[in-house]
From TrEMBL:
Record keyword Transmembrane helix present: yes
Family listed: Belongs to the UPF0060 family.
Organism domain of life: Bacteria
Keywords, ordered alphabetically: Cell membrane, Membrane, Transmembrane, Transmembrane helix
InterPro entries for this protein: EmrE-like (IPR037185), UPF0060 (IPR003844)
Subcellular location(s) of the protein: Cell membrane
Name of protein: YnfA family protein
Amino acid sequence: MTVAKSLVLFALAAVAEIGGAWLVWQGVREHRGWLWIGAGFIALGLYGLVATLQPDADFGRILAAYGGVFVAGSLAWGMVVDGFRPDRYDVAGACICLVGVAVIMYAPRPA
């Protein structure tokens, strides 16, 4: 159950951080205004909160692993929300990152 909980939290964190950054981007770069920027700031704050809920207590490990989730999630967000079409190198890089996440977070460690 711990791995499942961790994966759900990584997905929630990805939506909050990537969505928050996208909202700020839209507010500033697409001139949608302060409401979008403010919503982005709130979502980015929620990302920070969700990250603290990971079962592992090591901040550095969580943030390092989340970096890989962020890479893959950003490409997926771009595909779904902005119509971005990743090439094979984008996909290969994201897969490498996700393998890194699995090694960092879920490799067996001595107790």
